[in-house]
Amino acid sequence: MAKEIVKTSGGHLSPFERIRKVNEAGNEYWSSRDFAGVLGYGDYRNFEGVIEKAKTACFNSGHRIEDHFVDVTEMVIIGSGAQRSIKTVLLSRYACYLAIQNADPKKELVAHGQTYFAIQTRRQELADEHIEEERRILLREEIRRHNVQLADAAKDAGVIQPIDYAIFQNHGYMGLYGGLRQEDIHHRKGLEKSQKILDHMGSTELAANLFRATQAEEKLRRDEVKGKNAANRTHREVGAKVRKTIQELGGTMPEELPVAESIKKIETKQQKRLGKAETPAIKKSE
Q1: How high is the mean pLDDT in each 10-residue block of the chain (286 residues)?
Q2: What domain range is 64 assigned to?
Q3: What is d(CA 235, CA 233) in angstroms, rounded to the nearest whole number?
C-alpha cells in the first residue's frame, strides 16, 4: 500500500490522512474508532453497524474480508487511570471506502470522505494495474525464452516435426487445463484463432504455464526421455502436477481465470509512455 501523505486541493492535510497509520511492515491502515470520530459518530456503537455493512459489501464484491478488516482488542486508559479493553477494527483503504459508502450521509464529512476515498482507491487500482502489467510483460518474456529451451529438450527426445511439437505442447496444456487442448482453451476463453493464448493470460496464469514449461524441460533432460510418446506423456504429467498443486493451495484453475488485455497492446502503451518520457531529454541535448 502507498505511504505518501495526501493533501487536499487547498494544501491542507486531509482529516482522513491525519488518522492514517502505518504498521512495521509498511502497510497503511485506519482504526475504526478514529474513523468513527472523524465522521462525527459520538457513540461508536452506531458505527459498528456501518462496519458490518461494509464487510458484507466486501464479501459480495469477491474480496476476502480478513484482508481488509482486522478485528483487534486494544487497551485504553479510563478516567481513574485504570485500563480496559475495547474492540477495534483495523481498516484497509478499500475497507474505508466501503465504510464511507455505508455511513450516514447527513454527517458533514461523509460526502467529503466518499469523494476522497473514491479518488484514492482509484489511484491505488491504477497503481496495481501498472504492477500487473509489468508482471505480465516479464513473465511473457520468460515463457518465450523457456519455450525455446523446452523445444530444444523435446527435439533431443525425438519431437522433430512441427506437427509433432504442436501435439507435444497440447499434452502440456491438457495436463495443466484438465484435459483441454489448445483449441479448447481458445473456445472456452472466447479467443479468436489468430490470438495467442499466452498473450491474453494474467500474471497468475502465466506463472503457472512458466512453471509447467521449466519443469517439463528439466524432467525431459534429467530423465533422458526418448521417443515422441514418452515426451508427450512427460509433458502432460508435469502439467497435471502443476494443476494439482494449484488445487491443493486452493487456487483458481487456469481455465477459470479471466482473459486479460492483449499483452501486445500493453507493450505498445509502454513504448508510448517511454517515448513521452524521453522527449524532454532529447530537447535538452539539442
Answers
A1: 37 77 89 92 92 94 91 78 85 90 83 75 73 87 93 96 96 97 93 90 94 96 96 97 93 92 83 62 38
A2: 15-104
A3: 6
